[in-house]
Inverse folding.
């Protein structure tokens, strides 16, 4: 949530000589983050980010309280003033309330209302207009401005009705599915059902509670009698309706975060005062206050040692007490406006730590034992494979796991951001549309009933126009891994399941002694029948005798294939004569296996 | 003895050879059919077996030594040919491959956290709501979930673990790691792909996060600060400092936003950072409820956690200046070939 507050408005609640720059810095370090400090003609505006747990800071009073707590830690004097929580007068008694009320207190934990008679609608005084406009709220007329002023100053949303447009009674209840309401901004909603609404004696819905008032009962330039209305609502109901209708008004965003019911009465009293000042209107009824279950004070105690342990400093008990008091915590009692945010000792630790200042805490590395319980994933080999492939001249790419094509057996996205990202891919191949040799390591996703999908970690090599080059890369990779090739090859792609490969790969192969005897190396050329697979031929030559250390295909010309054969023994030196029988064996093997014939003659 | 003399003479001759032609002749004289070495070889057959093996080995060693000396000298002479050599002409490059900058960053992050004893892990990218939200102290419909822009999978709910979602953060690894290790100490580094419904120059629907989780007895805010300072120094540069500011996450208490000194202006304040600091991501002390969800006793153990975008820290690498991270996932050679 974001809130903008002019410096002049803040000073209504904060007594300090600190500059806006200093206040912004202290707030950012200890409390809400000041995203920007904007300079205007004669003022500054703080643009603040308020976290969702601190609905009490969606107000000038709340920010002033933070500033009053933080500034003294920087050696700057600051005190909170005009704290609405400090009661200023007793409840005035008035005429009976004119409407019959039926309120479900589960939906509306605290319901207050009062009639203000004889208002005069006119523009607000310049100071109020200036505060509102610099806070990013348009000034309309004095009645609307009072609502907005109360919300911005204290963080309590307020509604005003034209009393004379309401018939006889108010029933606060849940809506039925399909009921309609037209709100102040002239939008008509068909309600999902289960929304908090108010119906009057004419069976019309006059309020979509906590989100926006109804148009039919709105204050206009002829309004004479106003119903001032200050409530808290069931947060989950407000949130649900607001989300379902897409109506994220500031009131809704506050109500869904459980603002303080103890704030309701001070705000309505302040409202009565403002009505008198700005509209000339007088309180014309008793104040209705339906609050059957006031929250009991909440106590959260924290051992001093826990604070010291977490902060890593021996902070004095008196410092802790002072910090907590400045935030409204008295003897472990949580202030009403922090009721939902503070639950456990760690929450108090945070309060002390941030106001004391995170920047004052030491910085040190752990000195405790290093864990040695490793998972089996071999991230090093993954990285090594990437580096080998890069070394072979390939470029690594990352493509999106979310795809547009619907192939059978793919997981579907329920709320896709775009048509391009509707499915979780089960193959990497369609994602590789690039025209250069590339590779990618990524998961593919394979649904399993009742379980999470299998995430198969795969390597795709793609972008080759020459199959032999692609295969060469795959062969080279598996040679480095000391494994037989296990890749799914197509003419342009190779897919490798990495998990088994990485599990079986050998970083250190079994060492074979290097022969002290010189090898005999010679070329033999064979004529092979058309469409003979040469892979098995190479294997057959290699397998034909144990003295054959290696076989390479070095030249092909039409149906002639030249193999370079290395003969080597670990125990003796070889000569051309000594390998003659081996040579004969090769010739006979190829003759029987593939009907290959030697080019030339053997001695 | 005879062979040793032969070898020494041969090596001297090779060393004195002044041209490739001379070397060619030497090769014939020293190793050819009529060479002394070859003659020695022929006498082998008449020797008794024991001597045969011995002499055979010596002959072979001599031969190898001469061959390698010939090769070496040949290479030395290569530069002294009469032909004109243009050393300014471009060389013949092997094809240049390119490691993706995300992989580069991940390797660096892994390496520098391993120095601190962190264990890298990987957890599911498609996970149950329980691990992504609920176990992290975010019950269903909690307003805090709004921040995540979650992508849901069209699949039946798990009776206990809830909906199937694409992980919006690597924090799903927190409780999974507690379940794997069972008893602290834990120093986890979880790096993985995450997904959110966002796409603009600084966000991509698929992105990467790295998550640190440390749990042990007596882990405090200063330990987090020390780890952050270490990361800033190692990853961004020796003058880079970190700072933490208050924030709110459901799964940490206290929670922080983490800033590092702006690398563009070294903290002086510039157009990019305004304040001299750049926000990198979130961190905090692990919430007791999260420890409980991982069956770890919060009265005995405490911890800290942080989780940031790999793209985010990559963008802040000094001098890299990636202004649109969507480029990372575009497969454009003009972009990738620069790495």
């Amino acid at each position: 949530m974001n809130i903008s507050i002019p410096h002049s408005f803040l000073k209504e609640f904060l007594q300090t000589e600190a500059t806006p720059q200093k206040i912004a810095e202290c707030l950012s370090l200890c409390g809400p983050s000041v995203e920007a400090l904007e300079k205007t003609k004669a003022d500054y505006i703080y643009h603040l980010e308020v976290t969702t747990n601190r609905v009490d800071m969606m107000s000038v009073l709340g920010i002033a309280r933070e500033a009053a707590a933080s500034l003294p830690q920087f050696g700057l004097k600051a005190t909170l003033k005009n704290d609405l929580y400090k009661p200023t007068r007793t409840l005035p008694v008035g005429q009976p309330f004119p409407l019959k009320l039926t309120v479900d207190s589960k939906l509306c934990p605290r319901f207050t209302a009062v009639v203000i008679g004889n208002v005069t609608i006119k523009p607000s005084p310049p100071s109020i207009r200036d505060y509102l406009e610099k806070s990013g709220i348009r000034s309309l007329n004095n009645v609307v401005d009072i609502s907005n002023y109360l919300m911005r100053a204290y963080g309590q949303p307020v509604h005003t009705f034209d009393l004379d447009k309401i018939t006889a009674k108010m029933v606060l209840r849940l809506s039925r599915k399909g009921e309609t309401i037209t709100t102040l901004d002239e939008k008509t909603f068909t309600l999902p059902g289960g929304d908090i609404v108010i119906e009057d004696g004419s069976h019309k819905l006059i309020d979509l509670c906590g989100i926006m008032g109804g148009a039919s009962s709105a204050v206009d330039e002829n309004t004479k009698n106003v119903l001032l209305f200050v409530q808290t609502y069931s947060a989950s109901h407000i949130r649900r309706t607001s989300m379902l209708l897409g109506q994220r008004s500031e009131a809704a965003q506050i109500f869904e975060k459980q603002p303080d019911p103890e704030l309701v009465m001070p705000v309505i009293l302040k409202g009565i005062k403002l009505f008198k000042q700005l509209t000339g209107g007088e309180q014309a009824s008793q104040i209705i206050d339906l609050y059957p279950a006031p929250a009991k004070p909440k106590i959260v105690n924290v051992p001093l040692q826990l604070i010291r342990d977490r902060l890593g400093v021996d902070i004095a008990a008196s410092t802790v007490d002072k910090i907590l008091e400045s935030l409204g915590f008295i003897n472990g009692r949580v202030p009403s406006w922090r009721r939902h945010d503070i639950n456990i000792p760690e929450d108090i630790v945070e309060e002390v730590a941030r106001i004391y200042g995170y920047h004052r805490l030491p910085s040190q590395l752990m000195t405790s034992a290093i864990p040695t319980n490793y998972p089996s994933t071999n991230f090093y080999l993954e990285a090594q494979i990437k580096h080998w492939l890069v070394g072979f001249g390939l470029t690594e790419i990352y493509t999106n796991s979310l795809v547009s094509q619907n192939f059978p057996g793919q997981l579907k996205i329920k709320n896709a951001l775009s048509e391009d990202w509707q499915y979780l891919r089960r193959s990497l191949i369609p994602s590789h549309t690039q025209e250069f040799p590339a590779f990618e390591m990524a998961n593919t996703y394979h649904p399993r009933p009742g379980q999470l999908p299998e995430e198969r970690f795969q390597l795709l090599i793609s972008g080759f126009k020459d199959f032999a080059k692609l295969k060469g890369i795959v062969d080279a990779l598996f040679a480095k891994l000391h494994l037989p090739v296990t890749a799914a090859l197509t003419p342009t792609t190779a897919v490798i399941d990495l998990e088994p490969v990485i599990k079986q790969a050998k970083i250190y192969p079994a060492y074979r002694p290097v022969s002290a005897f010189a090898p005999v190396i010679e070329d033999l050329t064979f004529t092979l029948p058309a469409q003979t697979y040469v892979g098995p031929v190479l294997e057959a030559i290699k397998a034909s005798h144990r003295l054959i250390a290696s076989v390479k295909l070095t030249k092909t010309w039409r149906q002639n294939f030249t193999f370079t054969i290395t003969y080597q023994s670990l125990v003796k030196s070889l000569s051309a004569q000594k390998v003659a029988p081996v040579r004969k064996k090769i010739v006979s093997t190829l003759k029987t296996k593939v009907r290959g014939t030697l080019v030339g003659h053997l001695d | 003895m005879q062979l040793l003399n032969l070898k020494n003479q041969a090596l001297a001759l090779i060393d004195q050879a002044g041209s490739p032609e001379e070397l060619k002749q030497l090769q014939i004289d020293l190793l050819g059919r009529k060479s002394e070495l070859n003659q020695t070889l022929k006498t082998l057959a008449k020797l008794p077996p024991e001597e045969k093996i011995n002499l055979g080995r010596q002959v072979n060693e001599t031969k190898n030594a001469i061959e390698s000396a010939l090769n070496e000298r040949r290479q030395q002479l290569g530069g002294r040919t009469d032909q004109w050599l243009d050393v300014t002409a471009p060389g013949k490059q092997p094809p240049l491959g390119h490691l993706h900058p995300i992989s580069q960053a991940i390797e660096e992050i892994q390496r520098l956290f391993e120095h601190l004893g962190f264990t890298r892990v990987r957890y599911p990218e498609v996970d149950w709501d329980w691990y992504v939200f609920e176990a992290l102290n975010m019950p269903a419909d909690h307003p805090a979930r709004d921040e995540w822009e979650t992508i849901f999978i069209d699949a039946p709910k798990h009776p206990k673990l809830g909906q199937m979602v694409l992980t919006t953060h690597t924090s799903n690894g927190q409780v999974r790691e507690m379940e794997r290790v069972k008893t602290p100490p834990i120093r986890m580094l979880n790096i993985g792909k995450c997904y959110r419904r966002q796409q603009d120059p600084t966000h991509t629907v698929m992105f990467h996060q790295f998550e640190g989780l440390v749990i042990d007895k007596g882990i405090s805010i200063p330990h987090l600060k020390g780890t952050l300072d270490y990361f800033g120094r190692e990853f961004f540069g020796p003058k880079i400092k970190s700072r933490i500011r208050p924030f709110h996450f459901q799964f940490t208490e206290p929670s922080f936003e983490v800033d590092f000194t702006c690398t563009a202006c070294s903290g002086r304040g510039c157009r990019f950072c305004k304040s001299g600091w750049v926000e990198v991501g979130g961190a905090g002390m692990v919430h007791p409820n999260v420890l409980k969800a991982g069956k770890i006793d919060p009265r005995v153990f405490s911890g800290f956690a942080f989780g940031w975008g790999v793209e985010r820290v990559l963008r802040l690498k000094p001098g890299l200046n990636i202004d649109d991270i969507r480029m990372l996932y575009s497969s454009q050679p003009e972009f990738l070939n620069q790495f």
Observations:
- Residues 67 and 271 of chain B are 67 Å apart (CA to CA).
- Chain B has two domains: 2-78, 101-336.
- Chain B has a mean pLDDT of 91.
- Chain B has eleven helices and nine strands.
